[in-house]
Amino acid sequence: MTDQSQQLESITQREYKAGFVTDIEAESLPPGLSEDVIREISRIKGEPEFMLEWRLKAYRHWLTMDTPEWAHVHYPEIDYQQISYYSAPKKKDDGPKSLDEVDPELLRTYEKLGVPLDERARLAGVAVDAVFDSVSVASTFQDKLAEEGIIFMPISQAVKEHPELVEKYLGSVVPYKDNYYAALNSAVFSDGSFVYIPKGVRCPMELSTYFRINAANTGQFERTLIIADDDAYVSYLEGCTAPMRDENQLHAAVVELVALDRAEIKYSTVQNWYPGDENGKGGIYNFVTKRAACRGESSKVSWTQVETGSAITWKYPSVVLQGDNSIGEFYSVAVTNNMQQADTGTKMIHLGKNTSSTIISKGISAGRSQNAYRGLVRVGPNAENARNYTECDSLLMGDKCGAHTFPYIEVKNPTAKVEHEASTSKISEDQLFYCKQRGLDAEDAVSMIVNGFCKQVIRELPMEFAVEAQNLLGLSLEGSVG
Amino acid sequence: MLEIKNLHASVEGKEILRGINMTVNPGEVHAIMGPNGAGKSTLSNVLAGRDGYEVTQGEVIYKGENLLELEPEERAQRGVFLAFQYPVEIPGVSNIYLLKAALNAVRKYQGLDEVDAIDFLNLVRDRMKLVKMDEQFLHRNVNEGFSGGEKKRNEILQMAVLEPALAILDETDSGLDIDALRVVAEGVSALRAEDRSIVMITHYQRLLDHIVPDFVHVLSEGKIVKSGDKELAKELEKSGYSWVHDAPEGQTA
Q1: Which residue of B50, B85, B88, B162 to mutate against A (max A Cβ within 10 Å)?
Q2: Can you give the pLDDT of all 482 residues of chain A as single tens digits?
Q3: Could you tell me which residues come within 8 angstroms of residue A465 by beta carbon, excluding any fewer than 6 positions away?
Q4: Which of A309, B137, B146, B252 could serve as a FRET partner for A256 with CA atoms 20 to 30 Å apart?
Q5: Closest Cα of chain B to A304: distance in Å?
Q6: Does residue B93 sit at the A interface (CB-CB below 8 Å)?
């Protein structure tokens, strides 16, 4: 191994900056999963009957299912009876409350994470829903958004205040029978965000949810539902962190997006769950189902994700292109370092006529990590003139990591055009030396080269998120340059 | 500025440099000429600190410091600049971004604040005139899709912005047509200064018509076999390199 590969390696030995624990009194259910636990979650949340029924159906179905094993990831079997399915910071009373009543310790936590919840302190253009373990602890700008008819609130609140919308759309994109983790989530989900943008409204600010897992031995099962009615537009961001703990923790979320006629949803994620230490101890299992339905004609959904955290990532944000002329996009950067494993990609299901999709995936592997792109492009028999363009590029740092590409293409209509391009490269010693000869140290050089590699994706992110993502890319590879 | 004493260096166990001695004073322009395989590029790579070159004997003193002990970026920050024979492409990174990062790295070492955005743009625009570069170059990715001439001009632009104390130009004339050669050479000539030394490594004499050196050295089989003034280059042009092998060793001017 050359000096420079050693240097790459030492650069990717990173520090996880969001790894602290908030000392706060929590109310948790004891570990274990049963119908009683589900009834208890539903009772705590004061849910209507339909919600409990749905949860129970999902649970009974889950019991009949097996853990999926097709992904290119390896981990010991999870004991679902050892997990606590509900944990919430203790509070005086239920019901919605103003920011003044939020525990100052929680406000400090979010501030430390760079997400101040004080509306005055925020950049004016972003409304935040903060989810701490199993519950939403604050959502800002609710009133201001309500003036436009926009609903942005914790889903537990929406279940009570807008049951007709929740009942109509929940599970309509990801049915509880969809897959193992979606079924589990449907049974035990505790909180998440709910967004409804009425007809013709362009949401005037970025909506964002910041997920934080704090409690030990707890799973986070959040559920997000976003509906953009005819001609509506919304840009939504999510960020995620967790403390450093030696045990693995499960995060099994479901996100459903519905875009009606001519509506557009832009969904961006910067995922930085605790990835475990350099020997693979601890870290979050991020098993997430994200799917969008472009239900209306000429609707558009765009997923952008920067995945740097988690011990294991298993996620495929997908778009079902039902409406004619609808558009699906997937822009992804997945970074794995040390012992991290990622199996991520997308599914673009073309059902309507003249539908088009674009997939840009950038995988970066360092350390002893494994990084896989898995994508499906399916063109149904009625999808005349469907178009897809896929580009997947992998960047390897060092010689102990792996990059894998699993593209699946199924075309049932002869008018379809599907393109796939793939490349694998290494950060070359020539590039590194060139940057160093211009005065940049190895870390800055790697960060610059990696950010250049990811540029097509980063530029899809809203401005302030893009800056955060660029910093995170640098940090994630800190300690790995080859 | 630069003192090279009895420098020996090997690549993969094979000795390429076999005792180079050379002194470069501030403001001087030295040309190092020689046939293919003489060790010209090895010398520039060793001076810049590239991996894979093992110095087995000798030393290099730059501004009183042992250059060979410094990392490549430390040498660059102290004012050692290498214009690459084959400039490297960096996809997705704009030219202006690299220029700014490089300038800030040097400024940081000098204890200066990061350059102000407006000042930086003014500086770059000014220096681009030296190499007749269009502003759109700044927003293209570093060397990606550049022609040979554009790449070399870009190297000289970087040199003009970074204002190094010691610039090593490795075959900067190779692959250039006569017009591009003139632009590059004029750029370099404009950067001659009392406190800046330039070492030009070249195979051909034609570059030296445009940038007239103070000293010319002939490198052959890892040693400087002859030194002189610009007339030596002309002699080489006439009679080729074969005669230098026959010249008595150590005959230096």
Answers
A1: B88
A2: 455 555 555 555 556 766 667 766 667 788 888 999 999 999 988 999 999 999 999 999 999 999 888 888 888 888 888 888 887 766 545 444 455 666 777 677 766 666 666 654 444 456 677 777 666 666 667 778 888 999 998 898 899 999 999 999 999 999 999 999 999 999 999 888 899 999 999 998 888 887 776 666 677 888 999 999 999 999 998 886 666 666 777 888 999 999 999 999 999 988 887 888 888 788 888 889 999 999 999 999 999 998 888 888 889 999 999 999 999 999 999 888 888 888 999 999 999 999 999 999 999 888 888 898 999 999 999 999 999 999 999 988 878 888 899 999 999 999 999 999 988 888 888 999 999 999 999 888 988 898 888 888 888 887 767 777 777 777 777 666 54
A3: A237, A268, A270
A4: A309
A5: 18
A6: yes
Going edge to edge, which strands form the sheet with B14-24?
Answer: B14-24, B2-11, B53-62, B65-66
Distance CA A127, CA A140 (A): 5
d(CA A219, CA A242): 11
Domain boundaries, chain B: 2-246
Hey, is B241 helix, strand or coil? coil
CA-based nearest distance A434→chain B, Å? 7
CA distance A455 to chain B (A): 6
The residue among A437, A443, A451, A456 with the most chain B CBs within 10 A of its CB, best to mutate, is A437
Residue of chain A whose alpha carbon sits nearest to that of B106: A439
CB contacts of B86 in chain A (<8 Å) are 430
**Chain A touched by B109 (CB under 8 Å):** yes
Chain B residues with CB inside 8 Å of A454's CB?
Answer: 92
Interface test with B, best of A360, A438, A457 (most B CBs within 10 A): A438
Distance CA B101, CA A167 (A): 53
**Which residues of A fall within a CB distance of 8 Å from B51?**
2-4, 429, 433
Query: In terms of CA atoms, which chain B residue is nearest residue A441?
Result: B73
Report the b/e string of A122-155 with b at 16+ CB within 10 A: beeebbbbbbbbbbbbbbbbbeebeeeebbbbbb
- Residue linked to tokens 């250039």: B176
* Residue in A429, A430, A439 closest to B73 by CB: A439
Contact B131, B46 (CB under 8 A): no
In chain A, residues with a C-beta closer than 8 Å to the C-beta of B162 are 438-439
